[in-house]
Specification:
Layout (H helix, E strand, L loop, with lengths): L1 E2 L3 H12 L15 E4 L14 E4 L2 E4 L6 H27 L6 H13 L4
Helix pairs in contact: 1-2, 2-3
Bound molecules: zinc ion.
């Protein structure tokens, strides 16, 4: 397990994308947010199909080559947790992955801020 290379720069790029959206009253804060590269985490049953995972202020990615889209998606989960932590945890228990409204929101956040170039 190690920190993502260029962590702060890459998080700032993801934040710049989310800052174009107004999903929550305050912009996402990067305070205390860290990104861990932890391939073996994704060998745990139940996590094998993911490339990234966010829990509160910690983002775990499978590879140091994590894309900006993946980091934007996971940072959106951090943003959700900063505003609706308990609703987010509850939704993970309540909905299948694809139907989870917080997953839908994170996917839409990536899609709507994708660069056109
Ligand atoms: Zn997600």
């Amino acid at each position: 397990m190690r920190r993502l290379p260029g962590e702060q720069r890459r998080l700032a790029a993801a934040k710049a994308r989310l800052d174009r959206l107004a999903l929550y009253p305050r912009p996402v804060s990067l305070r205390g947010v860290r990104v861990l590269v932890w391939p073996s985490f994704f060998r745990v049953p139940g996590f094998r199909r993911y490339h990234g995972y966010a829990l509160w202020r910690t983002i775990v990615v499978r590879s140091a080559n994590a894309s900006e889209n993946l980091l934007t998606h996971e940072l959106c989960h951090v943003w959700q947790a900063q505003h609706r932590r308990f609703a987010q945890l509850w939704a993970w228990l309540r909905y299948p992955y694809r139907a989870n409204p917080f997953e839908r929101e994170a996917r839409a956040a990536v899609a709507s801020t994708r660069s056109l170039s």
